[in-house]
Amino acid sequence: MKKIVSIDFIPNFEEDDFELIKKILKGYEDLKAKRKVEEELRKYFPQGEILFFNSARAALTFILKILKNIDSRREVITQAFSCLVVPNSIKFSGLKPVFVDIGDDFNFSLDDLKKKISYDSLALIIQNTFGFPAKIDEILSLAKEKNIFVIENLTHALGAKYKNTYLGNFGDITLLSFNRNKVISSIIGGALIIRNEFIIKEALKEYEKVEEFNKVKLKKLLLGTLIFGFFKRFYHSKILRKILKVLRNLKITPEMISKEEKLGIMPKDYLKKFPEELYPLLLNQLKKMERFNNQRKKIAKIYMENLGITFKISDFSEPIFLRYPYFSSRRDEIIKEFSKENIFLGDWYFCPLAPCDAKEEVFGYEKGSCPKVEEINKIIFNLPTLISEETSYDIIEKLKKWEE
How buried is residue 139: exposed, middle or buried, by Cβ count under 10 Å (0-12/13-18/19+)? Predict the structure, then answer.
């Protein structure tokens, strides 16, 4: 039986992670795990207050509410070619998202950014899409000129560098994600690293009010992940896919984006602290991060050398290639054929705000406002990078047949 290859289907979980989940379900605790996680993160972020949450989107809403309370401006600049959870986080905090078009690096177009910054701009969020560092110097210069808070979003880019310094050490706030399809995963989770002293005091006070994560829900997530891991070996079966869908509907297996979020509605239990029980799993993943990212870079180099697609990456940048972007007008056919062989390619991003079954106007996006994004949406898809060299060559061979 051929092993499944999927960008979204817990690609960074190995056997020791599943064994650790089983131990946690049996009551395993490591009271030092949180401190050890902080020590690991300090290797990348020496300065700043670290706060842990149940998700990156909740963490973003939390910090934007803090900024709203200390400043009268009401717009947050973000890019299209992103996930709808970002504008949701902005709206849930009582602020307004302003969408900027992208450049050739899939990050802010500097020209469009300059046009859309206004006197009401409170903060901007640098996405570092696919793990590609944005034009940090130019963005920081604009932000400083307008006195705008800078949030470095590392949900795609934990471990990437700019000018030989890890991303996340340039702005006021850094946002991390530990979701199941990110750089590392503890099933759920996110964190803030706050370096701006003006913000820290207020953030610590408000963090004390954040409730703990529900224990029953946590057990469901842990059990659901074990089920995911089991089905990953058999996902080609239509019957098992239907079973998995039923489990999702019962909220036994984790859902990436809820129905409420697709409607722009804040779900119940949206903002919570990171579950104490998951720190050992997060620690286990953090210790593997360098290995994971080195493999991603190695596979990206193989794609570059064999597929002829390169990107305009600054000489100052060291991307991690969480995903490798690829383009084809026959995208839908390619994805369908690959799935028949248990290779599930990625869909970042087929519309300005993914997933595409949500209505963009709910999140404040106006069609035509980001033409470069809408052009790329039609042809882009993503190749996995946390895979073996053998698998990467198999993918390359299959893609080349479509180019003949």
Answer: buried
Domain extent, residue 73, equals: 30-207
In a domain, 356, yes or no: yes
Q: Find out whether 183 and 56 touch, Cβ atoms under 8 Å.
A: no
- Dig out the tokens for 294 from the structure: 């080195």
Question: Last residue of a domain, which of 173, 207, 241?
Answer: 207
pLDDT single digits (tens) 221-264: 999 888 878 777 666 666 656 767 776 676 666 678 999 999 99
Are residues 302 and 191 part of one domain?
A: no
8 A C-beta contact, residue 193 and residue 174: yes
For residue 266, is it left (φ>0), alpha (ψ between -120 and 50) or beta?
A: beta
Instruction: Of 361, 363, 318, 13, give the one whose Cα is nearest residue 186.
Output: 13
Candidates 364, 250, 279; CA nearest to 33 is 279
Over residues 24-40, mean pLDDT: 96
Element (H, E) at 52: strand 49-53
Residue showing tokens 């702005």: 171
CATH number reported for the structural domain that contains residue 331 in this entry: 3.90.1150.10
Give one DSSP letter per residue of 194-258, joined into a string. E--HHHHHHHHHHHTTSPPPPHHHHHHHHHHHHHHHHHTTTTT-HHHHHHHHHHHHTTSS--SS-
Cis ω on the peptide bond leading into residue 349 (within 30° of 0)? Answer: yes
Is 164 contained in some domain?
yes
Neighbours of 77 (CB within 10 A): 26
Same structural domain, 196 and 310: no
